[in-house]
Amino acid sequence: LGCTNCVSRRRGICAVLNGRQLPVLNAIARRKTIPAGQHIFSEGGGAERYAVIASGVVKLTRSGLEGQRYIIGLKFASDFLGRIFKPEHAYTAEAATDAELCVFSRDSFVRQLSRSPKLERQLFKLALNELDACREWTLLVSRRSAYQRTAGFLHLLAVQGGARIGNSAHLILPVRREEIADFLGLTLETVSRQMTLLKKNSLIKLVSSREVIVPDVEKLGALARAEIPQD
Amino acid sequence: LGCTNCVSRRRGICAVLNGRQLPVLNAIARRKTIPAGQHIFSEGGGAERYAVIASGVVKLTRSGLEGQRYIIGLKFASDFLGRIFKPEHAYTAEAATDAELCVFSRDSFVRQLSRSPKLERQLFKLALNELDACREWTLLVSRRSAYQRTAGFLHLLAVQGGARIGNSAHLILPVRREEIADFLGLTLETVSRQMTLLKKNSLIKLVSSREVIVPDVEKLGALARAEIPQD
DNA sequence: CGAATTTTTGACTTCCATCAAGTGTAGTGG
DNA sequence: CCACTACACTTGATGGAAGTCAAAAATTCG
């Protein structure tokens, strides 16, 4: 089946399915490997496909009226992609790294949703968690300093995507400085400066520009949430 | 019943209930009038009560570690209050103006939810709309200028809470400058300056410091969403 | 009316954006 | 293998938007 080791089986939508229901959902899923950079679905395009991320990182973007592109979120393994109950997707989903997905056609998934109240409720719970996370993120990017925002971004990666050993984490950044900046409402230069500052303050180690070691994930998170913006 | 003219009957959770189901929900609801300033429930406190706003404006706040208080949202007539599926509320709800609520006890509401898939799905849909709105808001408060954020706030009030006549709106601000500032990630001085600037540019009229006329709601919204931060 | 609160306005400072070089780091083809 | 290019990242100098500090004006309320 391939579901046994999937993260979604443990904390995604598949977590609530029993041995009978899982194969049913699996039967309507299509495994797909997406190379980095490829679009999964597009803003405004009809919501004909939904997906669950099995591995990799996915960028959620929106285009402004004058052509600008905004990153509104990053999605990780076990996350659900797509706007159910609406005819159109509200954003574009694009693979930031190579990614494995379970893709569902809209009709078959919605049908399954109506048949399984447990599945619907799980999706509901995940949406509420996302809402909580979105509110938290809003607080970070609207009230915190550039230094804290950058710390917050790395903390997010460490918690959601990174290889963690105890309280330390080894991160491969899925996006460039420019995209981090966009995500945080900053400029790429500022992000770069804050990264070197975080390094100077030994909160991170830069193995290369795209590879970061976080010795103390908790400390980084506390910094991001601190009331008094320091350094 | 009192439901006939209620906004929630038209676009809230009650909108999906038929003539048989509405009285059932109504039977477990307790109408309550809350004076401005009073807490409805508190962050961290057990989620024993949920509510639907029948009229008025409710402030959603969170307290930071060092005692600071953040406004994370404003809720209007027909909005649902409370974090279902979680033992604790994630935020404090406080009446910003005098408000009328339909209060539900946790147990009876959850029981009703399990009995009525339509009700649960409606609540789900509303949560997804809230998520979309939260993402939109994040864009506003992280990437836009103080001028645009202030415009965005007034636009929100005009769309959600204000007395509208065609494309113009008459607003009674439910919160002080300090709270607007907090909500927007600005300072009260900056908000005040932007308000006078909006007045100078004839985008709003200030009847009094708490009463605003928006002649062109669309224009205000377009300004808030514009790529190039002007004036 | 007078006290307290809220709002506006002013002067100055700070943080981050902008503009501009300069430094890697792949990737390509001779 | 080494130019050569293209792209990503860092670092520096400067300016402007919003924050901070301070005081005056307006509004609310007892």
Characterization of the model:
Chain A has 231 residues and is of the alpha+beta class. The first copy, chain A, is built from 8 helices and 12 strands. In chain A, the strands form 3 sheets. The first copy, chain A, has a 4-stranded antiparallel β-sheet with strand order 1-8-3-6. Chain A has a 4-stranded antiparallel β-sheet with strand order 2-7-4-5. The first copy, chain A, has a 4-stranded antiparallel β-sheet with strand order 9-10-12-11, covered by helices on one side. In chain A, a hairpin with a 2-residue loop joins strand 11 (205-208) and strand 12. The mean pLDDT of chain A is 94. Chain B binds a DNA duplex (30 and 30 nucleotides) through residues 145-146, 176-178, 186-190, 192-193, 195-196, 208-210, 229.
Set down the secondary structure blueprint.
The structure is a homodimer.
Chain A lengths: L6 H5 L9 H7 L1 E6 L4 E3 L7 E7 L2 E6 L5 E7 L4 E2 L10 E4 L3 E7 H10 L1 H27 L2 H15 L2 E3 L2 E5 L4 H8 L3 H13 L4 E4 L2 E4 L2 H9 L6
Chain B binds a DNA duplex (30 and 30 nucleotides) through helix 7.
Q: Brief overview, please?
A:
The structure is a homodimer of 231-residue chains. Chain A has 231 residues and is of the alpha+beta class.
Shape of chain A: globular
Percent of residues of chain A in beta strands?
25-35%
Radius of gyration of chain A: 18 Å
Largest sheet of chain A: 4 strands, antiparallel
Side by side, the strands of the main sheet of chain A go: 1-8-3-6
List its salient traits.
homodimer; 231 residues; alpha+beta; four-stranded antiparallel β-sheet; 12 strands; DNA-binding
